[in-house]
Amino acid sequence: MDKATRPMRSLEDRSRRRRQRFTEDKLVKIRTEHNNAGVVRTLFAAALILIQLGIIVGLSFLPALVLRWYLLVMLLISLFTALSVLSSHRNNQAKAVWVLFILVFFFCGFIIYFMSNDKYMYARARRHHKAIFANSEQYLPEHTPAVCPPAMEQQSTYLKNAGGFAAYNNTRLKYYPSGTQLFDAAIESLKTAQSFVFIEYYAIADGVLLSRIWDVLKKKALSGVDVRIIYDDVGSRAFSHEMRKEMKRCGAKVRVFNRLLSRFTFAMNYRDHRKIIVVDGKVAFTGGSNIADEYINEKHMHGYWKDTGLKIEGEAVDSMTLFFLRQWEFITRKKCEYSPYFGLYEKFESPYVAVPYVDGPEYELTICKSVFENVISSAKERLYIMTPYFIPDDSVVQALINKALSGVDVRIILPSVPDKYYVYLVTRDNAEKLIKYGVKIYYFKDSFVHSKLIVTESCAVVGTVNFDMRSFYQQFEDAVLTDDYSVVTAITEDCENTFPDCDNPQKAAKNGLVKTVAIALLRLVSPLM
Amino acid sequence: MEKDYNSYDYLSVSVKSDQLSRILQCYRALGWTEIKTEEDRQYYDMNYVRLRRPHKIRNKDRLQYLQVRMESSINSLVAITNRAHIKSNAVAILCALFAALLAAFGLWPVIAATALWLRALGWTGIGASLAVAIAAVIICSIMRRREKKTATGKIIEKLRLVQSLIEEAATLAPAVTEASEGLYDLVEDDAAEVLNG
């Protein structure tokens, strides 16, 4: 057939054939639109940071061309800095990484260390937090003093002394084993809002879930309900400008936490990972789910998305309101009214204890990590953990090993589909190293486990805290510690229903040379993961 | 069409045209109802299907999980088929290269050399290359038969998994079990199709 008589394929047809290569290995293709604009924005910010880092390195090396003794002085300063790092109160892994970095890059490493040291770079923000704490403390209403059973006494006392977190009795908690159920309940509660709605989320993204929530909130905002939303700038890449504008137009107050500015400060690493909804001071929600479609399995980004959440009613709601208002005051830098938002909860009696708590750079202690350690050490029969990432430090790992060796049934449920491959490599390696000590590792088939919970036979923690360094040391997190029998039972049942759908390796997988080297290198930056 | 996100969940999928009816039956068993099917504008040889199901369907979490596993298993069928003969193909290529190399080294002294021992060496090389080629054909055909058996086993396993997932889904979403009738036979047919090569 010559060129003239050959039938011409339309441009559209040819384009479809070209795209075919993306689907040739699939019989079914689920449409999961990714937010490319958000990714481009993050990459752009990362590129700017790298450029600035390059300039710092270049400028710090420049004097060496003129002054011969310059590098010697830099080396001496680096040695002193390394000594000061070793004598600091950081965790051992972070110390080792910093010392290595400072000594290898002796001409600029210590500059970057001081620039990223929260002791200096976050000092102003910390003073601001302290002022807010002092201001808000006086508005907290008196609550019925909590009566804690012996098993909870120590843990609630720790939380009281470490961060001033109150323990409550008269609180009703409900556990949701999926994001779908959590948000269905949250939307029903939002429909009843009459005076205020507070929402603080790490990730808010345009989509079906946000549309459902906004359908309700819009009416409320227009009718005069005080709707306030805090979102994190990194997590909420897919929260469009148009949507925010629409929210503001309808009267909702929308504020961003830690805008992704392209300047090299360690504060950029501090993200607001909290997930809080408070409705009228009567109901609050928290858990792993963010306001985005993948969390309710509307989109399948990484297989089935397993998430969990908690509904809080009663006295403990005041703590959730307090956490939100403090963060609001920190962001807006305006004095906040506290008293009108407290004591609005439904009054009823319950003997169980609930302690909502938060953690973040505003606290000197690593509260979330310590609570996990306390819960682990309190386990006598069983200890179930669900977490998307498993990159804890040595003390947590040792606590888990000790429990497993003591005969406690320690089980960890992890995803089988990674959302970030490099984190997953380290997660699997860390988890599988525990198998030989008797810890049972479960990979939920075709799923991404995003739930963050720990449960023993007597108490549970549900919240936003991952088993990783970022959650323990860098992010703003929230969680609830409880001994509520219904919650403990529901979580245990959820875990036990999940086990049959999991792969349960009996020994650690052997890694090839490339993987072993990659994991070793990734471990160096694991405090940042 | 106006979407009612408060009453319904919606799903858009692109499905290989020749598998459309079978895959739609799986979705029906998961509680989905087809609202629109058309030729996919984005991908060649695929159909764009829009489905919906009640937002407050019973056992939704489990149905969502079963759906993801079903989609993953169905897609893995293609991957298994595509990768079925990777090892035998690699062996065939390596053997072919080795035989060609031997033949080349054999032909050169046969054509160019005058010394008898060199010509004999050349003929030996050519003979060896033929032997390698024959051995490769035998080894590869044995390997391919084994690979086919393994792949078929994997495919049957996946199809059985899909079948069990859909059966479970049908018990969880009883209102739509009629739509999934006959699915078992379809899955069996698929397995037979694979077995027959």
What does this molecule look like?
The complex is a heterodimer of chains A (529) and B (197). Chain A has helices at 11-19, 36-61, 70-86, 92-104, 109-116, 118-121, 123-137, 150-163, 179-191, 208-222, 241-249, 317-332, 367-378, 394-405, 421-432, 469-474, 485-498, 513-524; strands at residues 28-30, 171-176, 196-201, 226-232, 253-257, 275-279, 283-287, 304-306, 309-314, 354-359, 382-386, 390-391, 409-415, 440-444, 447-449, 453-456, 460-463, 467-468, 477-482, 502-503. With 529 residues, chain A is of the alpha/beta class. Chain A has an 8-stranded mixed β-sheet, sandwiched between helices. Chain A is globular, with a radius of gyration of 25 Å. Residues 1-7 of chain A have low confidence and may be disordered. Helices cover 66% and strands 13% of the residues of chain B. Chain B has a 3-stranded antiparallel β-sheet, covered by helices on one side. In chain B, helix 2 runs antiparallel to helix 4, helix 3 packs antiparallel against helix 4 and helix 4 (116-172) packs antiparallel against helix 5. The two termini of chain B are 43 Å apart. The relative contact order of chain B is 0.14. At the A-B interface, helix 1, strand 1, helix 9 and helix 10 of A face strand 1 and helix 2 of B.
